[in-house]
Amino acid sequence: MILIVDDRPENILPLKKILELHNFKTDSAESGEEALKKILKNSYSVIIMDVQMPGMDGFEVAEAISGFGKAKDTPIIFLSAVNKEKRFITKGYSSGGIDYLTKPVDPDILLLKVKTFNKLFEQQQELKTIQHSLQYEIDIRKKAQEELAGRMQELRFILESLPQVAFTIGVDGKIEFVNEHWFQLSEDATIFPESHPEDDFYNNWETHLKNGLEFTTEARLKHLDTQEYKYFLIKIIPILQNGSTIRWVGTFTDIHQQKMANELLEHKVELRTRELLVKNSELETTNHELQQFAWVVSHDLKEPLRKIQTFSHLIKDKYLKENPEAISYLNRSISSSARMSRLISDLLDYSRLSVKAHFQPTDLNLLLEDLLSDFDEIMLSKKAVIQLDKLPIIDTIPSQIRQVFQNLISNALKFSKEGMPPVITISSTIIAEKFVDAEVSEEGHFCRIVIEDNGIGFDEKFLDRIFVIFQRLNNLNTYEGTGIGLAIAKKIMDKHNGIISARSAENHGAQFILILPLVQEQVLTEIRTEN
């Protein structure tokens, strides 16, 4: 913007028109005082100043402007119709003007001078901007260098206080700083310690240096005092600034004692593993022998029991028809023999669970359909109702998981309320985690199966007892059984990496809850990971 200062409006108007025709923005003031006020508020690229004005003349205004920090460099062109003498022209230049024109003014010359001074002013402003920018950058860099120097000093204090050997390396790969511990391994602060011939790590380090990658390794370094090689953990990391590596910081940590202890431990573990393999082989042989023994014993025990039962029935039918008391005693003997036979069978089943078996995908719907046909008679006699949801296909040992369902359904039918038809509901959901109250999740890896009945139930304070072998909660005379069925179910569920639990209250039925993995390999992998 160009300021025109003249006490006569008729002089201002033509100048404004000329300048505005050439795309210059203009402003005007009709006195020196008004000009000073405007100069304080606005920024002007050129000031065209009339010399002869009432009050403050043009020279006085120019001298006043030269004292303003903001406007002192603004070009001033003096116009005068009277003072054409050399001394007035000289005064104009000395008071701060850069040109002195006498009236009448040639518009072309005035316009040329305005353009020139305006361009000079703009260039001057650009130079000032560049100067300020450069100064600002210099200040920032100076501050950054001071901060960097402070950080380097702080880093050195930290490295000096470390119990490890610590050092810094420049981007050229040369060592810049080492702490006092360095001299336990090297006499020269610019040379890396000597490493064992088998542990030459320097080539690997140089590759990491070129690629700007963190470097970590173990190596044996020679101790100057003892001349022995000791294990050290070597770690060298890049220090970045604005995405570029400015230096590297490294440490040598003495791990000799830990390494020796680990090697000793690994040796002991290896020996122990061999011992365990031998013991495991011996246990497998013993287990096989026990299986054979169990088969032989069960056969030898069942054979005399069968004879006792057979001859007892013959005696009862042929010789004791007229003796009710003797028949009662004999019936007890026959019942005890049958119970003994069931106990031997259940114990044999329990012992078989230690035999290895392979998991395979099992359709539980088909398994239960086949199993329920075995209960047709008792279900018909008790008018039992089975409500069965669609169950998933999961990895199981079919014969064993069948035994779990068989025991639980058998118990549900056995422990029904007198005079009330048993209602058994079997349902399933996919869950995220392996615990009883886990949330339902279609993406889960476990299946929760609930077998619910409306039978006599039990007090939950006995929950821990019902899965223990030979533990019974009911009178033997009222409900038959050996107390092994639920113990077998618990052992099978453990073998399947699953859970079995129950909820119940006396006379309010019972819920037995099975949690099974959908895929056994995934669960075994998770178990190994946790260990």
Give a written overview of the molecule:
The protein has 531 residues and is an alpha/beta fold. It is built from 13 helices and 17 strands. It has helices at residues 9-21, 32-41, 58-66, 86-94, 107-161, 202-211, 256-319, 324-352, 364-372, 376-382, 398-414, 485-495, 520-530, and strands spanning 2-5, 26-29, 46-50, 76-80, 99-102, 165-169, 175-178, 215-222, 229-241, 244-254, 360-363, 385-388, 393-396, 423-431, 446-453, 499-504, 510-517. The strands form four sheets. It has a five-stranded parallel sheet, sandwiched between helices. The protein has a five-stranded antiparallel sheet with strand order 7-6-10-9-8, with helices on both faces. The protein has a five-stranded mixed sheet with strand order 12-14-15-17-16. Helix 2 (32-41) packs parallel to helix 3 and helix 9 (364-372) crosses helix 11. The protein starts with a strand and ends with a helix.
Give the topology, please:
Blueprint: E1 2-5, H1 9-21, E2 26-29, H2 32-41, E3 46-50, H3 58-66, E4 76-80, H4 86-94, E5 99-102, H5 107-161, E6 165-169, E7 175-178, H6 202-211, E8 215-222, E9 229-241, E10 244-254, H7 256-319, H8 324-352, E11 360-363, H9 364-372, H10 376-382, E12 385-388, E13 393-396, H11 398-414, E14 423-431, E15 446-453, H12 485-495, E16 499-504, E17 510-517, H13 520-530
